[in-house]
Amino acid sequence: KIEEGNPYYFRNIAFKGNSIYEDELLHSILGIEKGDIYNQELLDTRLNYSQDGRDISTLYMDNGYLFFRIDPVEKAVVGDSIDMELRIYEGPLATIDKVLIHGNDRTHEHVIRRELRTIPGNKFSRTDIIRSQREIVNLGYFNPETLGINTPVNPERGTVDIEYTVEEKPSDQLELSAGWGGFNRGVIGTLGISFNNFSVRNILNKDAWAPLPQGDGQRLSVRAQTNGRFYQSYNFSFTEPWLGGKKPNSFSVATFHTILTNGLDKEDTNFGKFSITGGSVSLGTRLKIPDDNFISSTAINYQGISLKNWSTGLFRTDDGQVVSEGFYNNFSITQTISRSSIDNPLFPQSGSVFTLSVQLTPPYSLFKKEDPADLTLQERYRWLEYHKWRFSAEWYTAVAGKLTLKLGAKFGMLGAYNKRTGISPFERFQLGGDGLNNLQFGQFNGTDIVSMRGYEIDDVEANFRNGQNVATPIYDKLTVELRYPLSLNPNSTIYVLAFAEGANAWQSYSEFNPFELKRSVGMGLRVFLPMFGLLGFDYAIGFDKYVPPGTQGSFFNKYGNFNIILGFEPE
Question: What span, in angstroms and rounded, lies between the C-alpha atoms of 87 and 283?
């Protein structure tokens, strides 16, 4: 039998022993008022450790008072009310003496040290240690489950050493796969390799080849895909995250060449070909305002797009004309602002990721005397012009133990400078599909393909015009996802998930309605293997699919859809 008894309340709360901070500030952080129901857990959290940093210990320890201690004492109980005295021992200031790193047998020490917020000579700060821990984990080179932090103190000198103990894990990825490209496309083979902790400066050092020069935190990726005559794609990218080695200014260069054909012989009069050759150079820097979780990146991009008898109908103008012939230049500058505060790149349980980008071409039509309506399609779009906006947001929070809630939102829009020129037939969006074919055919084919669980591209009405597949200038997507890890071992991170999703696309701004969404629910599995990357499966039910009358089969056959994810989560 349980007797709950009567509730008790806080009455008078007094601080004793504080000389650094006034009572008023300490009371505002404590956030407990006279008459509030007595809550021991809340009291302990506000005194010693709160995940949002709202606690008195953090106030002192972030200002160097490592030896700080606070003891709550119940001074009196009057009826149903309790008087509390919070006794503070502030102690002397502590400064950081040595910062030591152990266990990095592959990653060079400067790669870790440049991410740390704990600097010798600085005042001790608990928040700086927590942030340093997060940055080490987000490098992706070390096991987050075994990362250790020790703080041996020297009370006589008033100093503290910070010792980080890391355990290296595999970070390179090998991609060797085959996927079905659809009817008349056959099997598509993929061979790719990504070195995520590369060292360019040691390429000529034969002793560093074990089996490759590693440890400087640079990323090198080479990838090729082909099924022979229908499709070929070759990609290369390199990133230096600390250009010059003194500041977190990242430098990236990437290039690619993609060829698609309709599979006919070149001598055939109906032979069709579509190819893109392009590259980009980008420079990113970590911002200090509003906080140092923000990154600004600027990229210069160029693509040469060639079409010969490409009659799929994918590239269309606003009035429905098909672009199937000609050479088109796509020169643009992309400005991106992003913020990331997640605690683990493989399975985040707290934090958020926001990204806002705008991609701009020069407004060529403003300098032309000709009326765009009097020009051929090849003349009108020889130099593409547009402004393209993309936004994505993800929030993560642990709701019960390791059960994690993810909320996501995405939006994309393509606009024109000149109404008479119209929106570019290239660089549009196409919603639907599982991401596997998106990776093979969408990444470099003049459109951004956005995955939509529970729906194929053919299930979204906006993707069709006059019976042909088209791309759209605007879309939005909302996601709610619950994740639970089966294994957080970095050698095989595995988690299951259940989700609800809503998304849609529109062929014009006038039709846009952000709440007119196609809905789906489902469940899935994700497996991350360091050498092979991400492997995932989703099964989803699309509630708003159009199913022709008379279609045979069960509810799940009509509305269900099975998706495969390879390499990384599709957009």
Answer: 51
User: What is the C-alpha to C-alpha distance for residues 241 and 284, in angstroms, rounded to an integer?
Assistant: 8
What distances in angstroms separate CA 155 from CA 160, 194, 471, 542, 560, one per listed residue?
8, 47, 67, 64, 65
User: Cβ contacts of residue 500 below 8 Å, gap of 6+?
Assistant: 479, 480, 481, 519, 520, 521
The tokens describing 132, both together, are 């340093």
Q: Which residues lie closer than 8 Å to 262 by C-beta, 6 or more apart?
A: 230, 270, 271, 272, 273
Per 3-state DSSP, the chain is made up of helix, strand and coil in percentages (nearest 5) of: 15, 45, 40
- Strand pairing category for 249-261 and 95-102: unpaired
* Token pair in block for residue 315: 């590239």
CB atoms within 10 A of CB 569: 10
Running DSSP on this structure, what letter comes out for residue 440? I
Which domains are delineated in the chain?
9-89 (3.10.20.310), 95-165 (3.10.20.310), 173-567 (2.40.160.50)
Contacting residues for 187 by C-beta, under 8 A, at least 6 apart: 178, 179, 180, 181, 227
Closest CA to 134 of 339, 336, 340: 340
The pTM of the full predicted model, rounded to 2 decimals, is 0.83
Containing 487, the helix (H) or strand (E) segment is strand 474-487
Residues 338-347 pLDDT 10s: 999 998 888 9
Q: What is the pLDDT of residues 411-466, one digit of tens each?
A: 999 999 988 888 999 999 988 876 554 444 444 467 888 889 988 888 888 888 77
